[in-house]
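User: What would this chain look like folded?
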Amino acid sequence: MDREFEKAVARLEDVLSRFQAVLVGFSGGIDSTYLAAVAARVLPGRTLAVTADSPSLPRDELDECEKLAAELGIEHRVVRTMEFSNPDYLKNDGLRCFYCKSELIDALAPMAREHGAVVALGVNASDQGDFRPGQSAAARAGARFPLLEAGMTKEMIREHARMMGLPNWDKPQAACLSSRIPYGTPINLQTLTRVERAERYLRSLGFKDVRVRDYGETARIEVGRDELVVCAEAASDVDAELRRIGYGYVTLDLAGFSSGNLNRALAKGPRA
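Assistant: Here's the prediction, encoded as C-alpha cells.
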C-alpha cells in the first residue's frame, strides 16, 4: 500500500473504533461488504450486517448477502422495508432515493437502538458528484458514512478488499431495480420483475456490467464498452428472449454501461 492508502485505512479503523457497536446497511456490494468486514475486525462481536429487502432488491442479491455474511462470519439479519407503500416513492420523481433511504433508516433505527449501534452506510469518496438525495436523507437521520469520512475511494476499497481476500472485491457496482425506470414513470412490481428477469438472462450469457433501462415497451440494454460487440453478435437470441419476457422492442446503447445514467434527466430537477 502507498502512504495515502495506508493513511485512509488507518482513518477508517479509527472512525470505527470510536463506535460502541455498528449496524452496517448491507447490500452485498463491495462497499458495504468491505465496510462490514473491516468493522467486524475492529469491533469483533459488535458488528451487525442488515439487508433491507423489498421488491427493488433482486432475489439473487438477497441470496448473495446471506452467503457473504456467513462466509465472513458476520451476524446478518434481513429487514423488510415498505417504500412500495409510499405513493411518493412509487411516482418516481427526482426524490425517489430520498424516500427510499428515509424508509431504510426508519427500519434500521429500532434495531440500532437495541444494540446501542451506529447505523453506517457504504458511501465512499468516489460517490461525491452524482445526484444522491438518498445520502442526504440518511445523513439527516443520523447515519454515518465511515468510508467517506476516511477518504476511501472506490479504487482503494477494491484494492484493500482484494488484499483481505474478500470474494466480491471485483464485483460490478449495482443499484436497486427501481433505478432502471426513467424518472416520472411510475414504478410497479410487474415492471421490476421484467427488468430483473432480463438482467438475469444477460448475466447468464456472461455480461458483467449490465443494466436494462425500461421504457415501457422498449428495453435499452447497457453493457460494458468492451462487451458491446459480443452483445451485438448475440442480438437475435437477446431480442427473442427479451421479447418473451415482455418487451416489444430491444435496443443496445452504443455508449455502453454508465452507472446513474438516468440521473442526467435531473440536471435541473429537485434536490433534497
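The domain at 177-266 is CATH 3.30.70 (Alpha-Beta Plaits). If you want, I can go into more detail on any region.
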